[in-house]
Amino acid sequence: MKKLIFVCLISLASLTVSAQYKWGIGAALGSPSGLSLKYFTTDTEAFDFTVGFWHDYTSISAAYEIHNSFNDLGGLNEYKDQIQWYYGPGAHIGSWNNNHYNTGETHTNNLFLGVDGVIGVEWKPDIPVAFSVDVRPGLNIIGGVEFFIQSQIGIRYTFDR
Asked: Is the dihedral of CA 38, 129, 84, 115 positive or negative?
């Protein structure tokens, strides 16, 4: 299985420069894992929505992302137009499913609400698929004040402009 993934990644790496996409739908894997939808409003601005599930909660998150290209990727400059980094603010709302998976403590509220940030990297090769990796720090404001850091790996089928 590892060899198959390696061969697929090497094959994808040999593709040429791609065009920007308008929107994409796919999977977000991490904390939380779920369905992801990204919609570009301009060439550099997008909204990213995730309906996700984790050990003890279900959530909906939305992020406003600003995408930027890299000026220099060293030995990877041939992929400079395919790889972008992004950042932005966001928010989330969700509900606790049961006791806290880490401590076993009972959640005091069923609902939680908070603010998020996101910073990540996206690779869009010359096929209708985009791959991303990001880190999402957040703060629950309602439903148990708590700072947390989540991470996700994303894969989306993309639709051109």
From this structure: positive
